[in-house]
Amino acid sequence: MLSNPFLFALMRHLPAGPASWLGGWLSANVARRTMKLRDARARTNLAILRPNLSEAEREAILTRRWVNIGRTMAELANIDRLVNDAHVTVIDKEGYQQVLDGPGPMIAFTCHLGNWDLLAAHIKWSTDRPGLGVYEDPEDPKIAAQLKKARSSYMGEAIGGEGAARGVLKHLTQKDRATLYILADERRDRQVWFPTFGRPLEPSGNLSIALRLARKVGAQFLPFYLVRTSGPHFALHWHPPLDPRHMTDADIVATLDRYLGDACIAHADQWLALHDMDLTMPGHDVT
Questions:
Q1: Is the model's pLDDT at 278 over the cut of 80?
Q2: 1 falls in which pLDDT band (50, 70, 90)?
Q3: What pLDDT is recorded for position 190?
Q4: Would the pTM of this model clear 0.90, i.e. be above it?
Q5: Cβ neighbourhood burial of 65 (10 Å; 0-12, 13-18, 19+)
């Protein structure tokens, strides 16, 4: 959909609900057939992460996963219509708002669950904190351009590529109560290194960067994620902030890994990165 300007424009002209449904239908019935390798990887990884499921249960989860991917892509054209209390329910909203209204810089830390772009837009909508998102452009320049255009209306400031580290540090140190939005489950070397799922992996990638930044600027971690409940409706879950002044890096990593790892397994039908790794590879065996 992102590489097809007509489809993207169609999604924008349709009401948010029908657009989301159409995106899910196209993904499950068209895209899935052309992405057999990704589907096979997701199936293998799901069998490892949730071995107690029957074959029929796993297939149902995989089908729902393709629907969620398609809905998420279609909803990119309608994020501004979804950033509201009618579409996003915050679990313990009062407590969440108290966290956002608190002092100091914050690193909002999540995974590609539910609709991660809506989550980024929602935290920007929910607080007066200056926000910055870290992103990595897709390899396809057409998709990258369309994605940038879609996000420009709701994402606010975003940064990626060379010079990103300097820009992030400047943001966190020079803006009062600045927030950094980071997706931790990025793909590197044909693997997803976080969550670990018990694999003997050292903190690396975005997680390693976030740990160093938190120590340098005194930022707290806010672990959170957004999951789809039905159609274009979502629940925002969050964990009390993790403060590097009172926790070791190992404790922070363990808490993040457990909280977000459990969420990715429980909501495997909404976790994008399930197809981006190979848990059968040496060094990536799940314990």
A1: yes
A2: low
A3: 85
A4: yes
A5: buried
Distance CA 111, CA 276 (A): 13
Least trusted range by pLDDT, from 9-13, 43-47, 140-144 = 140-144
> From CA 2, how far away is CA 25, in angstroms rounded?
15
- What's the chain look like in SS3? CCCCHHHHHHHHHCCHHHHHHHHHHHHHHHHHHHCHHHHHHHHHHHHHHCCCCCHHHHHHHHHHHHHHHHHHHHHHHHHHHHCCCCCEEECCHHHHHHHHCCCCCEEEEECCECCHHHHHHHHHHHCCCCEEEECCCCCCHHHHHHHHHHHCCCCCEEECCCCHHHHHHHHHHHCCCCEEEEECCCEECCEECCCCCCCCCCCCHHHHHHHHHHHHHCCEEEEEEEEEEECCEEEEEECCCECCCCCCHHHHHHHHHHHHHHHHHHCHHHEHHHHCCCCCCCCCCCC
Residue owning tokens 């196209």: 26
User: Residue 243 carries which side chain, given as an amino acid letter?
Assistant: D
**pLDDT recorded at residue 36:** 96
